[in-house]
Design brief:
The complex is a heterodimer. By secondary structure, chain A is α/β, with parallel strands linked by helices. Helices cover 42% and strands 12% of the residues of chain A. Chain A has a 7-stranded mixed β-sheet with strand order 2-8-7-6-5-3-4, sandwiched between helices. Chain B is α/β, with parallel strands linked by helices. Chain B has 14 helices and 12 strands. The chains are: A alpha/beta, B alpha/beta. Chains A and B meet through helix 2, helix 3, helix 4, helix 5 and helix 9 of A and helix 1, helix 2, helix 3, helix 9 and helix 11 of B.
Amino acid sequence: MTAAIARRPNAAPVYLDNHATTPCDPRVVAAMLPWFSEKFGNPHSLTHAYGREAEHAVEQARAQLADLIGADPRELVFTSGATEANNMAVKGAARFHRQFGKDGVVTLATEHKCVLESAKALERDGFRVTILPVGRDGLADLDALARAIDDKTAIVSVMAAHNEIGVIQPIKEIAALAHAKGVLFHTDAAQAVGKIALDVSDLGVDLMSISGHKFYGPKGIGALYLRRRPRARIEPLFDGGGQERGMRSGTLPVPLIVGFGQTAALAKVEMAGEAQRLLALRARLLNGLRGKVPDLVLNGDAERRLPGNLNLSFPSLKAIDLIAACPGLALSTGSACTAAEVEPSYVLRALGLGDALAAASLRIGLGRFTTATEVDFAVDTLAAAVLRLRAGDRMTSEAVGIT
Amino acid sequence: MNAGLSYLDWNATAPVRPEAAAAVAQALATVGNASSVHRAGRAARRLLEAARANVAALVGAHTENVVFTSGGTEANALALRAFPDRRVLVSALEHDSVLANAPDAVRVPATRDGLVDLKTLERLLATDIRPALVSLMFANNETGAIQPIAEAARIAHQHGALIHCDAVQVAGRQPIDMGRLGCDLMTLSAHKLGGPMGVGALVVAGGIDIAPLVRGGGQERNRRAGTENLPGIAGFGAAASAAIAGVTVWDAVATLRAQAETRLVAISPDAMVYAAAAPRLPNTICISMPGVPAATQVMALDLAGVMVSAGAACSSGKVRRSHVLDAMGVPERDAECAIRVSLGWSTSEAEIDHLVDAWGALYARTRVSAA
């Protein structure tokens, strides 16, 4: 065990934070690079060859992304990422439907900050915001949702797969609940797209946020799926030159979009096999750890979760101490957006975890480039650190006379 | 540049500088979310902050005042929507990304030379005591006319107003000192100065609070949420440094521009160069060939391998009437025949010859068909 750890003294840390961001796939990088240099046209400059070449590339990428989620390419609006797409969807739908007397926003306590902050901003503008609790397993309560949605609700927003606990919500059922009341349904699918099969027609979602860098694509690019039939109507977040059918102004970043398209095309082909591989690696990691740390707690539903995700509590420890004790691993306590905060994850607290257990929790994200060797190294490193920290605690307690 | 093609549409976008492309490629090859606490995240954070310092240096600002956005349009939208309690005044010459984000704004008219009318600005500010935000671009994207920013800032501040300046066409083409100009907010775009598309910045002077447009994880000191586009930002930083280091190239560009303008006017003596009496960017020509619609000129030049535009590149690519020339009082029949030629740091004399030849051939054809 010690030998295995000692063998990697100067190696880069094993990256186990694939929910925060993923490495850009080298095949994606290769597809993008020419568009950073010789192919530099503005895709809106349709009066000349450089512009038309760029526009063609953008449309090809749009088709690749549409193909991954079963959409019509015209239903995709490129944004700077999922945060912008979520802001656009939640605020845009609420603001647009206010003219029809709709003033309600329904979402979950475990949503990503950018959905919750958008909801809060709407509340300050006079919208009725309902934030529903979730069960201990992290899943939405469908009955509570059905009761919370009424014909004055403008938008229901529920994340497809969770960024901290990996839980996959019953999106199809929730979309049906919203539609039964004539309400638009949005899902933040930043963590789900490219990891699990999602078909917008089958699921019946009206709006869906997608992120490039969460599935081996570049940062700075995302998209909002906007249903055409029946049309999901929203207000743009901001205005300008009227690009993206007036929904999202600004020069389209061609290299990022080309990379995003390539990312989607790779996911379409490799997603199913990758999921199987990650499930096996995850079982190896969890079983390995459980063998050495028997009181380990898995947070979130065990079955309905992303293949690469684990969220684990190590009772009596502080996750930040555990991370500090494992410099050879890149780990996190939760969302990167709030990683610098000292408070325990609001997501885990929404699952009913007490402060101590929430603060004892790690998020582990396995990804496309994670190997079995790395998983074994992680098991050994984490288990050794847990034993060391617990032994240290006992010694400290004994030293000060606490038993 | 591809053989036989002359790219003269630099105000739409510029080629990515090699330094920027290298920085992008390097950042793409590393993993890490700049908000993550672990080593990979901290390395990303260092790269991000180094780029922020380079972008700040572009306009003489403090590093912490730079808020990265997805581009110039978002930065303009953020600025124009940042102060819900202030009334907004915009010049009639502004880019669509300013005008569209302030639909209720008072429009400050322009002079025939293509400059904002400062007397009217002063009167509009003096006759309404409500706190205001003034938005005035540094240089116009269609005519290249450089606006009297320092004077406008002085007037704005005298009346308790804030001033925002869209500097996307100027940054990297001449040194900017935001503090000396007196600007409170300044918009920058990476791809106009040789950085990648998909990244820009709003520089916000110290002590000014802005309402965020995109909310969420609290990145960019709560002024712009979303995982930072690190490769883009790294490329922006590298492009900013390269632009500052190579800023003298624009003197040579100005010489080429002057030659081009003289030769074009010699071919078509009734051609009009807009904003010619104003101080202008060294690279921009807005010129009309009377009687020949801009769309015809642009297409003919494109067939000949010369890439120019009929005004701004935005939206659907449709050629529509320029609100800028309109604001300058250019009659519609002339404005419809105006094209924009914009040069860059690698524009060669051969490309100018190419333009002059193609324009000359078109001029000859139209005269024959008119005769």
